[in-house]
């Protein structure tokens, strides 16, 4: 059963703690993405990776870090430097480009992070 | 800069009546456009996509959208709403300068009343 898994589904963190969100895919996709979703807003891109061992900052990368050591995995760390980390976090992946077009992204079920 | 505007933050319809969710885009190039649906506390699921082939695009669950270049619109429609259609809908355009990036609208919440 191919897809994207995110864990945990719900996560609680105390202020000042770093926390890592897991994202795994078995779709053999080369590109992976992390988004943040807040109520009433669209998705905002945090980081993305087009290939193993390479990643780029998105629109709101401050206070976050990522790694891409394996094609299947793209974990996101929310650091204590992130001022307002409470949000719904979505991971996505997309297949190889067809020409210049990357095509659609496939999303995981999300992790809801709450800072206490 | 590329952008997407979803004209309604909330739409309410009765079950069995038509659905219209409006989306306008801004793009200097021929864009790729998508509609995604999100049920509460779930990830996003692709409904349909436009990539410069037919301008009328059919998607899953009876949804379709028409690309109108002259109006820079990509409205989502369904002839007859079902209770299970209640969800958040996002219109999305690909960034033509970086096709690895998607630009999301702010979403339209669809309510369906019995």
How would you describe what is shown here?
The complex is a heterodimer of chains A (116) and B (114). With 116 residues, chain A is mainly β. In chain A, 0% of the residues lie in helices and 48% in strands. In chain A, strands 2, 4, 5, 6, 9, 10 and 11 form a seven-stranded mixed sheet that branches. Chain A has a four-stranded antiparallel sheet with strand order 1-3-8-7, with no helix packed on it. In chain A, a hairpin with a 2-residue loop joins strand 5 and strand 6. Chain B contains no helices and twelve strands. Classes of the chains: A mainly beta (116), B mainly beta (114). Chain A binds chain B through residues 4, 6, 31, 40-45, 48, 50, 58, 88, 90, 92, 94, 97, 100-110, 112, and chain B through 4, 9, 32, 34, 36, 41-46, 49, 51, 90, 94, 99-102, 104-107.
User: What is the helix fraction of residues of chain A, given as a range?
Assistant: under 10%
- Which strand-content bin applies to the residues of chain A? over 45%
- For the termini of chain B, the CA-CA separation is 41 Å
How many strands, what sense, and barrel or not for the largest sheet of chain B?
Answer: 6 strands, mixed
Count of distinct strands of chain B: 12
- Termini Cα gap of chain A: 35 Å
Helix segment count of chain A?
0
Low-confidence spans of chain B: pLDDT under 50, at least 5 residues?
none
């Amino acid at each position: 059963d191919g897809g994207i898994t995110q864990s945990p589904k719900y996560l609680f963190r105390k202020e000042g703690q770093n926390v890592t969100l897991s994202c795994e895919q078995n779709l053999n996709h080369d590109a992976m993405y992390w988004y943040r979703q807040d109520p009433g807003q669209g998705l905002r891109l945090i980081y993305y990776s087009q290939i193993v061992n390479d990643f780029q900052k998105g629109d709101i990368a401050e206070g976050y870090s990522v790694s891409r050591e394996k094609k299947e995995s793209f974990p996101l760390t929310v650091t204590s430097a992130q001022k307002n980390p409470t949000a719904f976090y979505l991971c996505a992946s997309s297949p190889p480009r067809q020409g210049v077009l990357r095509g659609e992204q496939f999303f995981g079920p999300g992790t809801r992070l709450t800072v206490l | 800069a590329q952008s997407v505007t979803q004209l309604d933050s909330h739409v309410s319809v009765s079950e069995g009546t038509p659905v219209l969710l409006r989306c306008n885009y801004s793009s200097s190039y021929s864009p790729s456009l998508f509609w995604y649906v999100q049920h509460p506390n779930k990830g996003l699921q692709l409904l349909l996509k436009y990539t410069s082939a037919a301008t009328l695009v059919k998607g899953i669950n009876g949804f379709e959208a028409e690309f109108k270049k002259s109006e820079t619109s990509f409205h989502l429609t369904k002839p007859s709403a079902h209770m299970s259609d209640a969800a958040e809908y996002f219109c999305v355009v690909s960034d033509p300068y970086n096709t690895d990036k998607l630009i999301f609208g702010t979403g339209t919440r669809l309510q369906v009343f019995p």
